[in-house]
Amino acid sequence: MRAPELRGDVWLNTGGRPITLAGLRGRVVLLDFWTSGCVNCLHVLDELRPLEAEFADVLVTIGVHSPKFLHEGERASIEAAVRRYDVHHPVVNDPKMELWSQYAVRAWPTLAVVDPEGYVVHVAAGEGHVEALRRVITELVTKHEAKGTLRRGGSPYVPAEEQDSELRFPSKAVATAEGRVLVADTGHHAIVEFASDGETVIRRFGSGVRGWQDGPFDVATFTEPSGIALLPYDVAERAGYHAVVADTAGHRLRGLDLITGEVTTVAGTGAQWRTGPDSGKGVDVDLTSPWDVVWWGPAGGVVVAMAGNHTLSVFDPASGTIRRFAGTTVEGLRDGDVSEAFFAQTSGLAVDGDKLWLADAETSALRWIEPDGESFTVHTAIGIDLFSFGHTDGPADKALLQHPLGLAVLPGDKIAIADTYNGAVRRFDVFTREVTTIATGLSEPQGLLSHDGQLLVVESAGHRLSPLPAGEPTVVTGDAHAVRRPPTVLAPGEIDFSVVFTAPPGEKLDDRFGPSTRLEISASPPSLLADGSGTGTDLNRKIRFAEGVTEGVLQVVAQAASCDDGGEHPACRITRQDWGVPVRLEAGGMGELSLVMAGEPRTDG
User: Fold this and answer.
1) Is the pTM of this model over 0.70?
2) What is the pLDDT of residues 99-130, one digit of tens each?
3) Which end of the chain is more exposed for a tag (fewer CB within 10 A), N or C?
């Protein structure tokens, strides 16, 4: 399959020059289809770093930024994202998702390998493909070096100029009992302690180097820290530290001693959770992108927004244990008992008595959890599904947000929302259930703090912590939007469905302990499917659409286990991917749907 030419409206990290496949002939090209608000895409950026270093003389990685939300497609937004996440390869912005369609991409993230002669030879959707990519690239290098079609050297990457500032892409803030303000200085990989004025720096936790090291405040290192939770006094006395930090890209929780300045790791191994235990002794359990943290008494500990797998956990500082609290790992919006509810990249938490409020970024939703007898129940105040967003005030069931990341509790039973991709702060009245706008024109607000009689906002892309001026809320009646992805046109009735997973060179499916694959299918709306939903171990099945339904979204979760083929102690890996595939049913549509998790691309697109 000949690779389509690379075209977009903006090229970044190239000195402004566009890149063509002809200019890359002789190099192995890795296309990374991503969007800046997708946590799985951020995982892949980190996964690719060692691969890019290993094959620096033969491999060119190009990020194809195909936005989900309107804001993500704006030039300023993608420029900020490339700097925020230290992307050190060329990026082309694909705001109309034209490259996405030409390469038949159906999920974020997707990786496509183009060989030195310009052919797409491997496609992989989701995370955890580094070892497979390493083997594919190694084979390509060997093959094309022998053919004389491999060219080494000559990277097209041109780093962008950076401007220094006190804060760099900060995310969250909390106030201590003494009135000082702790800010997660995410881009500097540090926590900054300000005086009560929010301007005078007292000290920094973290040397500013990306990494993982415990120790004194000026020696310790973090990796893109975000949420900060202060512990009750008695809990802090037993635990030996005063605050818990969500060290997001490090997949750890860190403890801060605000007296000595000591930083310790209290949960997380540093490995990203993919499958297996997610409860136990904190330092022995894998975590996945903990984004925000808050102490909540009814749960008996620090609630952790585990954005990387769409769940919530509870960490007990006294015992040092962590456990799954809510969610199933399926991304979506479903209320009910916490054990069965769906979440979507929860990124902001706030406590108001017995209620835990949360911002689900990918469903643009405001939700809450409250005790219900022996369990807890999840409710939704604002939000529709994974694909609907906008900036609309009014009754909560009609209101729309766009990728909110932060919350704060205001006096008078009101919740402030950092409506990040709308550049706004919104307000939800718990009693009237009305939504209003209290500030606009902000630079990607990610955190809110009600402090000393005023509301402080962490403007991430503005690199600052600033107070919001007092004023009357307004009512915005903006347009409703939906995620702009071309639907897959399928035939009504029954179709053949499959997920393609081909073990990479040197590996085989791992069936030592039973089936090596797992497939779960659901739909939005649920009435879309008459038959074929549910969970099974076969990656192929027939599904049947209900009569009278003409469109919807297929929600697919697939998983495969593979191991090295040979050796006494083969290394094994889990590959997992979620898809939300918009479909439209029409006579003459395709009678089959195949999604590629890993393998050679289909030539029919």
Assistant:
1) yes
2) 999 998 988 999 999 999 999 999 999 888 89
3) C
